[in-house]
Amino acid sequence: MSDVLEVHDLRRSFRQGGETIDVLRGVELKVGKGEIVALLGPSGSGKSTLLQAVGLLEGGFQGSIRIAGEEAAKLDNEGRTRVRRDSLGFVYQFHHLLPDFTAAENVILPQLIHGADRPAAAGRAEALLTSLGLGHRLTHRPSQLSGGEQQRVAVARALANRPALILADEPTGNLDERTADVVLAEFLRLVREEGSSALVATHNERLAARMDRVVRLHVGVLE
Predict the structure, then answer these.
(1) Domain region containing 157
(2) Is residue 18 domain-resident?
(3) For residues 206 and 133, what is the distance between their CA atoms, to the nearest angstrom?
(4) pLDDT tens column, 90-122
(5) 210 assigned to some structural domain
């Protein structure tokens, strides 16, 4: 199995109150093609910092991050933007849907940015949302959807451009337990059906156990 993500000796420090805080201290991680990995750790353990690094969302990191074979350290801002657009999908604890757009439009828009024509993008959006049980909600805006439905739209949006790797940061953390179970099951099913890989940050041991592999972040290193 080839690796979609390879992280080597990843380090990140912050200055706070005149002190240096080492959040990541030489992280080593690989995610294989088609593999779903749970990143487990308590709040404040650095899970979000690690996902931000892997998602090429901010600088200040030391070490190597290879995504779909490309070394992030060798990329300029345009190259990092291209990798995020072409190879990565993101799901957050809060859905971050565009409030003035319908469910379908929220899934269509990233495809148009990626260069798809509108009929193809609309067809892809309808297929993904229907697969997630939202075929009857295509024209509804986020404010007209439940929390679980909003997060399903966010999952569809993340998968719209068929990314190699999905990065999910507490994707069910804002949902009640029953809804979280349903949304996670749909997320895992669809990621597997699409052939993507995923790195999913969570503090929930029960949810993490449903993924292919669990890695634990402790004092800035993975165990």
Answers:
(1) 33-60+81-218
(2) no
(3) 24
(4) 988 777 899 999 999 999 999 998 889 999 999
(5) yes
